[in-house]
Every structure is written in C-alpha cells, then in structure tokens.
Give the backbone structure.
Amino acid sequence: MKRRDFLRQSTVAATASLATPYFVSSKALGRGDQSGANDKLNVGIIGLGGRARTIAKTCLQIPQMRIAAVCDCFAPRCDQFIDAVGEDQNWSSYEDFREMIDKEKLDGVMVETTTHARAWVAIQAMQAGMDVYIEKPMCLTIDEGRYMVEAARKYDCVTQVGTQQRSMPINNWASDLVKNGEIGKVHTVLAPNFVGPDQWPSSEPV
C-alpha cells in the first residue's frame, strides 16, 4: 500500500473515535536524511492535556507512525504525560516547541494546545516545513483561521483539523434524516452544552 493511500484510509477508519492525524510531507521522497516513503512517520505532540493523551494512544496503534517527541510549556506535564502514555516509548520532551522542531527530524506535529495559542504554534510549525494536525477548534478568531489557511497554502503543508463530528457516518446519517424530512417537521432543537459534573434537569421546560 502506498504511503498516501494508507494515510487516507487510516483517517477514514478512525473517524468513529477521533480524527487520525493525516501527514504526507515532501519528506516522503526520502531526500538526503529525510524520511523515505517506506519509513515511519515521525511526529511530535505539542500541548499535553487530556485530549493529547487520547490521540497519543491512538497513534501508538498505527505501525506506520512514530511519536518522536512531546512538548508542553509546563515542564511537569511532560513527565506526567510520558508516565501515563509513553513510559516505554523513549520519547524526548521539550518545554519549547521551537526547540523540538529544530532538534527532531519530524514529518509533522499535532497541536493540542490551548485555543488561544493554537494558531501561533501551528503557523510556526508550517513555516518550519511541518505538516500539521490541529485540534478543534483550530483557532480563536476568524482572522486567525484565515492566516492559518494562507500559511498552509504558502508553505504547501498538509493540514487537518480534528472535526470528526462532521465526518462520522452516524452523524451524516442523522443529518440526512433531518434534511430529507424523514423524521417529520422539526419544530424544536435542543443544543445543550454540558459542563460536567452538571446534569441536564429533564423537568426544565423547553
């Protein structure tokens, strides 16, 4: 299976749980000391919160992908992350993602930072030639989003945003039911934003 075909298929297959990072960079050509098409993809994780742990666990199940390094601006979190997810993986850890990009031979990075830092980190990674997987929401403002799109085009980077809720088959099926009128006329839509451990009181009027 060709590298690009594998990445396409793994992305589709993983949408039931989370969007698998999709990296195909110019390094696939295997120029110089770059990764070749038959080598593992070397990726770095930036921002080591709970979401990053889930993504890292998924990546560990993909033989063609290797997490080479992890980064968080809060140093103790790096140690906590490695202890929880990658104790036997020999990952390098960094407080500054720019140092990680400079020192590690990465094909791409996964950006799971706080929302306000995501555009700044992602664009710098693109400028350094990295392909980028960006956790949702991809940015804080519309203007930031436009700069990110322009950067991806300018530096010819593969980018993906983790919006699997837009591509999961069951969600598309439910959306079609509504659009095609198969459940009748919709007169009320509930869109609660659950904040644990609060519970939605069913006795409240709609």
